[in-house]
Amino acid sequence: QVQLVESGGGLVQAGGSLRLSCAASGRTFRTYAMGWFRQAPGKERAFVAATSWSGDSAYYADFVKGRFTISRDNAKNTVYLQMNSLKPEDTAVYYCAADRSGFRLTTAQAMSYSTYDYWGQGTQVTVSS
Q1: Mean pLDDT in order along the chain per 10 residues (129 residues)
Q2: Residues 6 or more apart in contact with residue 43 via CB below 8 angstroms
Q3: I want to staple 118 with a disulfide (CB 3.0 to 4.6 A). Which of 24, 92, 98, 122 is the partner?
Q4: Residue 88 vs residues 13, 15, 40, 56, 97: alpha-carbon distances, Å
Q5: Of 17, 12, 33, 20, which Cα lies nearest the Cα of 67?
Q6: SS3 for 96?
């Protein structure tokens, strides 16, 4: 069983930045594709970004392209989401997720909630106007 623990959320003004971290337990982290999703009040969980197990591929939702960057450090079992130029509409609980298949994901798979096997508890990001 893999445990994922997010951190780095908080309150920030519009235009500001935050870096979210997701620490994973287990020795097989380096074989997992990792994703970030978010859920705003009253809305469904939405894809934000994902990275392949090697880190050589990254996928982004259109609404974060150019503002958010996903990265990973396999030596630290950690995936990051650098969020810049934050907007009030980015306010949500952010979740990281892991896909244990070891396969290289298609873009559609990387963006799909159902691809991921493990989920963290989430971290709140609030962007004030």
Answers
A1: 94 98 89 96 96 92 96 95 98 97 91 96 97
A2: 92
A3: 98
A4: 8, 9, 11, 30, 23
A5: 17
A6: strand
